[in-house]
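Private note to self, pasted from the team thread so I don't lose it. Backbone tokens:
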């Protein structure tokens, strides 16, 4: 039995072939499983965890699909997984979170330190690039 139409499986395969790089799949924002990956570096740190929880609520309330990585893994593992999955924007809550500083980056790009109050506009800017 064969299928010669354009189905979901063929569309996803075509995108994966066209948009994959050495880090994994780079999903376009329009069909990415999640638009934003929120990574907390030390989930056992109460300050980082509290700020990450608040940011998760904020990002969801903005209407974005967000994956929240609060696993007890090394930061490198978390970052590599988010690159491999192909999430377009990554927000990181680390040791500077207590000072109101977080990191944001587009998949495959350079990270940028921003203040928490700039998150809304930076997310929109990164997703519209």
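Design output:
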């Amino acid at each position: 039995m064969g299928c010669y139409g354009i189905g979901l499986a063929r569309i996803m395969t075509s995108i994966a072939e066209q948009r994959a790089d050495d880090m994994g799949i780079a999903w376009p924002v329009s069909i990415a499983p999640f638009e934003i990956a929120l990574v907390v570096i030390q989930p056992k740190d109460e300050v980082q965890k509290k700020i990450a929880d608040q940011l998760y609520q904020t990002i969801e309330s903005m209407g974005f699909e967000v994956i929240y990585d609060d696993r007890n893994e090394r930061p490198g593992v978390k970052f590599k997984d988010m690159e491999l999955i192909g999430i377009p924007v990554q927000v990181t809550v680390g040791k500077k979170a207590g000072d109101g500083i977080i990191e944001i980056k587009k998949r495959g790009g350079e990270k940028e330190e921003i203040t928490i109050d700039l998150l809304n506009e930076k997310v929109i800017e990164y997703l519209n690039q």
